[in-house]
């Protein structure tokens, strides 16, 4: 089976799961149920696509398949930004109430952080996997600790407005951000297209890419900005899902058996949709809402992450 056939098979599975989720157990009120489910599917496609796309790019830049943007603290940074805004301005501030303003402020701060991260990690030669993991752990712990400290100090009533952002939920989708997210994704994707042609070369390593004529610093800096925006969009819509990118991208590599990023990106997005829709079916139809989708994904992804670490350590 060639790469196109594998992509087609993933697309069929994704469409089948979407159909099962949309049209089973509709009940007597399809006019109410179907739009609600359609909204969830729409959010899943956006979220899964952003996380998969950004993870493929990030793993290519770092030249390692066990790293995700979440591991270096981007999810924790998002929570710190939201907590700090409420702590400083209050939950009734227009910056908080107006979700579009909040959305753009968050993206701007995350882009600044990515610029700093680029200088720390990618401008210096000889950095290895352990340094990346250590620095990511430090950033994630620092941001989480600062968020917790501020949450202790704020008014309990304002703390409730933060709680909804702390955990991923497809039952509490920020619908006000859906369309602005779609517009932002289209604009950023069009901007990123000019750099995606370099991904196959970047996967060969920094020195090889430079020798082949790639303006490495310029391309990597732009791609990191794309990663930051996509992670901001997915986290703003449904909340943080730490290990989804790690899980779906590595599964996509195993299924497709190619290093061509044009196939890997599409395959990762399809695997992400399959994982999220399949997970929602389990949560709603099997576990009857006794657990959440983020718990299942983070558990499976965490176990898979440990497996990948042990596998790399044996090499």
Quick recap of the structure?
The protein has helices at residues 3-23, 30-62, 74-89, 94-97, 99-121, 129-153, 156-166, 178-196, 199-202, 206-211, 216-238, 244-256, 261-286, 293-314. With 315 residues, it is mainly alpha-helical. The longest helix is centred in the N-terminal third of the chain and has 33 residues, at 30-62.
The protein's oligomeric status is: single chain
Radius of gyration: 20 Å
Principal-axes geometry comes out as globular
In terms of per-residue confidence, which ranges show pLDDT below 50 for 5 or more consecutive residues? none
Please write the string of helix (H) and strand (E) elements: HHHHHHHHHHHHHH
Number of strands: 0
Kindly name the structural category.
mainly alpha
Head-to-tail CA distance between termini? 29 Å
Mean pLDDT score, rounded?
81
SS element count, helices? 14
Helix content: over 70%
Percentage of residues in strands: under 5%
The biggest sheet, with number of strands, parallel, antiparallel or mixed sense and barrel status, is: none
Structural key phrases:
single chain; 315 residues; mainly alpha
């Amino acid at each position: 089976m060639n790469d196109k056939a594998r992509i087609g098979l993933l697309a069929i599975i994704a469409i089948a799961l979407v159909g099962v989720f949309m049209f089973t157990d509709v009940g007597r009120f399809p006019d109410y149920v179907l739009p609600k489910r359609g909204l969830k599917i729409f959010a899943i496609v956006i979220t899964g696509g952003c996380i998969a796309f950004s993870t493929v790019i990030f793993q290519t830049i770092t030249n390692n398949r066990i790293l995700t943007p979440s591991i270096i603290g981007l999810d924790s940074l998002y929570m710190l930004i939201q907590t700090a805004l409420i702590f400083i301005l209050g939950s009734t501030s227009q910056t908080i109430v107006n979700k579009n303003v909040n959305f753009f402020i968050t993206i701007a701060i995350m882009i600044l952080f990515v610029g700093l991260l680029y200088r720390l990690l990618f401008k210096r030669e000889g950095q290895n996997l352990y340094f990346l993991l250590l620095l990511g752990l430090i950033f994630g712990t620092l941001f989480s600790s600062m968020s917790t400290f501020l949450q202790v100090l704020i008014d309990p009533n304002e703390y409730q407005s933060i709680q909804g952002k702390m955990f991923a939920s497809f039952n509490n989708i920020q619908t006000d951000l859906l369309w602005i997210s779609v517009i932002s994704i289209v604009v950023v994707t069009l901007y990123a297209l000019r750099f995606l042609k370099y991904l196959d070369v970047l996967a060969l390593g920094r020195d090889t890419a430079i020798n082949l004529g790639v303006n490495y610093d310029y391309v990597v800096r732009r791609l990191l900005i794309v990663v930051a925006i996509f992670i901001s969009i997915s986290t703003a819509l449904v909340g943080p899902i730490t290990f989804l990118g790690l899980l779906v991208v590595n599964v996509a590599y195993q299924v497709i058996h190619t290093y061509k990023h044009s196939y890997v990106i599409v395959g990762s997005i399809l695997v992400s949709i399959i994982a999220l829709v399949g997970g929602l079916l389990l949560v709603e139809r099997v576990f009857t809402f006794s657990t959440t989708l983020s718990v299942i994904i983070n558990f499976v992804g965490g176990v898979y992450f440990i497996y990948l670490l042990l596998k790399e350590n044996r090499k």
